[in-house]
Amino acid sequence: MEIGCGNGHFMVEYCRMNPGSLFIGVEIKKKRCLKAKGKIERQKLTNARVIHGTAEAVLELLPDASVDSFHLYFPDPWPKARHRRRRFLRRDNIAILQRKLKIGGFIFFITDYFDYYLHTKVLLLLQAGLELSGQTPSQSVFRSVFARRYAEKGKEVRALAAKKTGEPSG
Question: For residue 65, what are the CA distances in angstroms to 8, 16, 49, 79?
Fold first, then answer.
């Protein structure tokens, strides 16, 4: 599942490379959903779905231990201190992601904001049942619109991966 699938670039690439996996993209902006759906249709992919809505609402509907991996690439960093509470990766949402993951499942995260990277790293370290992993996201994410834009500007992007260990959540 990709939270904030945008125009669907990563999702389409992932589905083409992993035809046996069902991939769900969640996006709050309707125009982006329509673009992602168009890409899926043009590629004739049968293993991709896009849901227009909030990630929190979609996560509520998922059974516990049902997701292999969550992908969060370049989410809105809400860089102003007074807005940080709006970030998706907050303690309560990380606990929900951990609960929805299968044992051995991953949370993949990439950002160009160092503060968001540190914030997320600390929260992942504090979440019982998750451990940081050296696993890297698919290289296709680095060909996305955002990744190319940041590379052209010379911005450094940072990635994190956390694995569900099977320990009970806190």
Answer: 25, 25, 20, 32
